[in-house]
Amino acid sequence: MTYVLGIDLGTSSLKGILMDEVGNLITTKSAEYQIDTPKQGYSEQRPEYWIVALESVLTGLSVEISDFGQQLAGISFSGQMHSLVVLDDNNKPVYPAILWNDVRTSKQCQEITDRLGQRLLEITKNIALEGFTLPKILWLQENEPEVWSRVKKIMLPKDYLSLWLTGNIYTEFSDAAGTLLLDIEKKQWSEEITDAFNIDRRILPELIESTDRTGFVKAEIAERYKLTNEVKVFAGGADNAAAALGVGLINEEVGLISMGTSGVVSAYEPKIADYKGKLHFFNHTVPGACYSMGVTLAAGWYKETFGKGLSFNELLSEVYTVSPGSEGLLFTPYIVGERTPHFDSKIRGSFIGISAHHEQKHFSRAVLEGITFSLRDSKDIMEKTKNKKFKRLISVGGGAQNPDIMQMQADIFNSEMIRLTVEQGPGLGACMIAAFGCGLFDSLEAVTKAFVHYKEASFIPNPKNVARYEQIYQIWKQVYKNTSEISHQLVEFNDEG
């Protein structure tokens, strides 16, 4: 039996998923690490944390699985997007990795927008936000010039793991697309952008496809974990791209809905689409394809704030008793600003229509409906731009575990909703890339058929609820434009105080 290993490098932990050649899960291992916050708004990690975590996972696998060393054929990765890793001429980190959720770079984002204007969107298909990599580079140039003078290579987190395993430096298009340095259509580093900000293109890694091999596990590492085969290592993908592959998002017929800490809508894009900056647009792990993505930032806020100590189902145990529309109560999920379609860091959340008869169950349902309405904003943009409706939507995350939420999604999206039999997240996509790269399958479609499985029962829209939600959604859409100015004033007042 042949094994493939998917390594998912997350923000707070690294997870290894070991699967066999026909798509059976063998085991998983994980290791946590800390996020460093030396100042308000800063979010950093030392790349060494990730190596320690990977060593722990590899050790655990080699101990638990007796034939791990003899049967492991390939390794690939999924990784947190956008985070900046900078190395010296010995390939050693010269500064902590600045993570995707670091927000120190508002000034640099404005500088990028002012200097490049519409060209940034034309080249990268995205607008400048604090999460992306380019603003972090500009911050380092401006605030740590001595550090910047020592930088000989720029990397993304998962590619640092590949460097450790193989000694080779590459990145692939799905992660490169999140840097604001890639010409997404030409699939090359943009000379116009790098020249504009004095970035030597020689410090950027060579670009390859997600399914391309970056090398083989080095001899000393193979010996440490008793790997007797020549284990191949493949480039992998950014976490969202790998997750899209791992749920079977490989054609235009289906879309992906994820409701967890944040909310995400993703769609497969066989060619470049122009969303005019309203959605994120990145290269896919599927060679030649892209994917679009809408994000609602604070989908998990309600449970984290009011549901401590409760399971998801306990918190939502009575929502089924409340009719669609929560009896006149609306919620907008703009708790920490919003990403799509508004890209407004100063908008804040709201409950509208509170009356004396509303109880916790009404607030719970209103929150779920508001998050789903926000995700529908992105779904509608995708469908209108392409003039094509999804045949069905795949639901993942905490929301997919609750049948009441699944039916609510079916009614608000007016779409059939399906679920995975088992969710393994981005790490499964990494396993699939390794399986294809090792030649165990002749196409990613064949890998998907073997590795990705859906529950037979689906959730079908209720026509009565669909009609009611359509009316409520039109009212809900008015809340942003009627509260944005108030939110902005409150944020500015609070900042001054």
- How large, in whole angstroms, is the Cα Rg? 23 Å
Strand content: 15-25%
Uncertain regions: pLDDT < 50 for 5+ in a row? none
Oligomer: single chain
How far apart, in Å, are the first and last alpha carbons? 64 Å
Tell me the overall shape.
globular
Fraction of residues in H or I helices: 25-40%
Number of strands: 23
Structural class from helices and strands?
Answer: alpha/beta
Question: Treating each run of at least 4 consecutive H or I residues as one helix, how many helices?
Answer: 18
Instruction: Please describe the biggest sheet, giving its number of strands, its sense, and whether it closes into a barrel.
Output: 7 strands, mixed
> What's the mean pLDDT score?
94
3D structure, described in words:
This protein is α/β, with parallel strands linked by helices. Helix content is 39%, strand content 20%. It has 18 helices and 23 strands. Strands 1, 2, 3, 5, 13, 14 and 15 form a seven-stranded mixed sheet that branches. Strand 1 and strand 2 (13-20) form a beta hairpin. Helix 11 (239-246) crosses helix 16 (426-437). The N and C termini lie far apart (64 Å). 49% of the residues are buried. The mean pLDDT is 94.
Helix/strand layout:
Blueprint: E1 3-9, E2 13-20, E3 25-32, E4 44-45, H1 47-64, H2 68-71, E5 72-79, E6 85-87, E7 97-98, H3 106-116, H4 118-124, H5 133-143, H6 145-149, E8 153-155, H7 157-166, E9 170-172, H8 173-176, E10 182-183, E11 188-189, H9 191-196, E12 206-208, E13 213-216, H10 219-224, E14 232-234, E15 237-238, H11 239-246, E16 254-259, E17 263-269, E18 280-283, E19 290-296, H12 301-306, H13 312-315, E20 330-332, E21 350-352, H14 360-386, E22 392-396, H15 403-413, E23 416-419, H16 426-437, H17 444-451, H18 463-496
Parallel strand pairs: 1-5, 5-14, 5-15, 9-12, 16-22, 22-23
Antiparallel strand pairs: 1-2, 2-3, 4-7, 6-8, 10-11, 13-14, 16-17, 17-19, 18-19, 20-21
